Amino acid sequence: MLARIARLYGQRDLKVEEVEVGAPGEGEVLLKMAAGGICGSDLHYYQDGGFGPVRVREPIIPGHEAAGHVEALGAGVSGLAVGQLVAVNPSQPCGHCRFCRHDLPIHCLNMQFMGSAMRLPHAQGMFRDWLVVPAAQCLPVGEMVTAGEAACAEPLAVCLHAVARAGDLQGKRVLVTGAGPIGVLTIAAARHAGAAEIIVTDLTDAALERGRTMGATGTINVATDAGELSAFEADKGYFDVAFECSAAVPAIRSAIATVRPRGLIVQVGVTGDAAVPINALVGKELHWIGTQRFDKEFAQAADLIGRREIDVRPIISHGFAISDAVAAFEQAGDRSAACKVQITFFS
Asked: Is 128 in contact with 16 (CB distance < 8 Å)?
C-alpha cells in the first residue's frame, strides 16, 4: 500500500511523495490519518531549516500533532478497536535510562520524538496519510469531537504540563504573554486549573480575541497600549504567576516587572540567548522555571478534548489537504491570519 507523505529536504524544500506502508507488527496499529497540526518547530524547520543548534540534516517527515482512525490491529493489541479516532502521542522515551527510571521520562537520554530533527537519524513525523505506530501511543478520544480537535491533544498537553509546573492556581492572578496557539491553550489550561484572573498580551488584536474566547478575562495589545501593562508594575507587581509563551525579550522583562515578589514565572517559549534584568529577578526573589513537552498530561489532554471540557475549536484557523502541504506551511507563517493550521487527509 502506498502512502502520501510531506517530506522536508531543507529550507522551504517540502515535497509531497509516495512511500510504501507495511502491515502493523506485534503491538502496533495501522492508522488512517485524519488531521495534523503545524507546530512552531515544524514552521522553523520549513522557514529556516531549523532553530538554534537543531538543523534539518537529512530528509524528514514533520508533524507531531496528529490524529487518525484505527484501520488495523497488530498481534497482541487490546484496548483499541478498528474505526476508533485516536490522538497520537509523539513522545517515545526509552524507559530504561536513569531519568526514565526516576520517573522523569520527559528528560529521557534516548528520547525519540516524532517529527524531531534533534537526533540523527531524525525521528520521522506524522504528516502522512497512513501511519504504523505502537498501540501504546494511541489515545482514544471518543465520538463527540472531530479529528482536528483530537490533533490538538499534543499542544494542549504541553500547556497542561506548564500549568502543572506552576502548582496550585486556584484563585491566582495570572499573566500570559503571547497569544499564539500555545499561549491561548495555556489560558484554557490555567482557567481549567482555577485561575481567578487571566490577562493575556500580544501584538495583534486577532490573537487577543482568540485568547478571550479561550478564557482570558482581559487582553492588552502591547503594540498599541503598552501602558496598560505597565500599570501592573505598581507596588512591585500584581500577578502571582506569569506564563511567558513568546520568548520575546520585552515580554520576559514585562513578566519580571509585573509579577509580585516571590511570584513565579514559567518560561514556556524558547529562544536563544536573551538579556534579562537579573537585578530585578533577584531583588524581587522571583521563581523563574522552565517547562518542556509533557508526560502523563497527554492522556489528560485527550480526555479533556474528548469531553470538550476544554474546547479547542477556536484555535483551528485553517485546513489544507496534504497535496497542498506547501500552501499550508506558507499560511502557518502568516500570524496575522493564522493560529493553528492543520493538514488534513482523506478529505
From this structure: no
The Cα 271–Cα 51 span in angstroms is 9
d(CA 88, CA 233): 42
Length of the chain, in residues = 347
Domains and CATH numbers, the chain: 2-152+312-344 (3.90.180.10), 157-290 (3.40.50.720)
For the question of whether the overall pTM of this predicted structure is more than 0.70, the answer is yes
Strands 65-73, 218-221: parallel, antiparallel or unpaired by DSSP?
unpaired
Q: What is the pLDDT along the chain (347 residues), one digit of tens a residue?
A: 899 999 999 999 999 999 999 999 999 999 999 999 999 999 999 999 998 888 999 999 999 999 999 999 999 999 999 999 999 999 999 999 999 999 999 999 999 999 999 999 999 999 999 999 999 999 999 999 999 999 999 999 999 999 999 999 999 999 999 999 999 999 999 999 999 999 999 999 999 999 999 999 999 999 999 899 999 999 999 999 999 999 899 999 999 999 999 999 999 998 878 889 999 999 999 999 999 999 999 999 999 999 999 999 999 999 999 999 999 999 999 988 899 999 999 75
User: Rounded to 5 degrees, what are φ and ψ at 95?
Assistant: 90, -5
Phi and psi based region of residue 16 (left: phi greater than 0; alpha: psi -120 to 50; beta: remaining): beta
Q: Do strands 197-202 and 218-221 pair parallel, antiparallel, or not at all (unpaired)?
A: parallel
Place of cell 529577578: 281
Q: CA 262, CA 343: separation in Å to the nearest integer? A: 43
Task: Characterize the bridge pairing of strands 112-113 and 65-73.
Answer: unpaired
Which H/E stretch holds residue 199?
strand 197-202
Which single residue is written with the C-alpha cell 500580544?
A: 202
Closest CA to 268 of 297, 295, 240, 289: 289
Sole residue written with cell 501511543: 137
d(Cα 346, Cα 89) in Å, to the nearest integer? 21
Cα separation values, 99 from 93, 103, 297, Å? 10, 6, 18
Residues 89 and 158 sit within 8 Å (Cβ to Cβ) = no
